[in-house]
Amino acid sequence: MIRFALIVLVSFVVMEFVSYLAHRYVYHKLLWVFHKSHHSPRKGHFELNDIFPFFFAAVSIFLMFISASDPGRFDILALSIGITLYGGTYFFIHDLYVHRRMKSLSLRIPILLQIKRAHAIHHRHGGEPYGLLFFADPRRVAREEVKEEEDVS
Predict the structure, then answer these.
(1) pTM
(2) What is the tally of structural domains in the chain?
(3) pLDDT digit string (tens) for 91-101?
(4) Burial profile 18-53: b = 16 or more Cβ within 10 angstroms, e = fewer
């Protein structure tokens, strides 16, 4: 059971790095044609960028299918659960909270406010931070905000 929980936790953490790399090198380069909709005002409930969560969900569902086909592969099930938990966390924080797809969701939790500020910097400049959870370094965000204010002055 400890091994199962450890695989879930590690896969959750690794997904932040996968998300960072995909966002930086795939979404902002190779697949910008889809991702640019996320950096533009949304018209309606959906945007082209919404295809990316479906890809990660499909990977997770496929892994769950494999683990269901071979009950001895609990490690694959744990991996898919970690990916799913990361996806749910990302959806809640990024889509519902940061981008206010759920207008009534208003939280005053310091780490979430920091993530929101860091993501706003990403949208203003199109650069760092590309990650969501572990890359919202408060010192870097503060430096970027100061630098931005100095550039405007």
Answers:
(1) 0.84
(2) 1
(3) 999 888 888 87
(4) ebbebbbeebbeebeebbebbeeeeeeeebebeebe
> Position of tokens 């309606």?
44
User: Of 139, 145, 94, whose CA–CA distance to 119 is shortest?
Assistant: 94
Dig out the tokens for 139 from the structure.
């010192």
Name residue 73's amino acid. Answer: R
pLDDT digits (tens, 9 = 90+) for 10-52: 999 999 999 999 999 999 999 999 999 988 888 888 889 999 9
The residue segments making up the domain with residue 67 are 2-152
Cβ contacts of 70 within 8 Å, gap of 6 or more: 76
Residue 149 · residue 121 · CB < 8 Å: no
Whole-number Å distance between alpha carbons of 102 and 145: 26
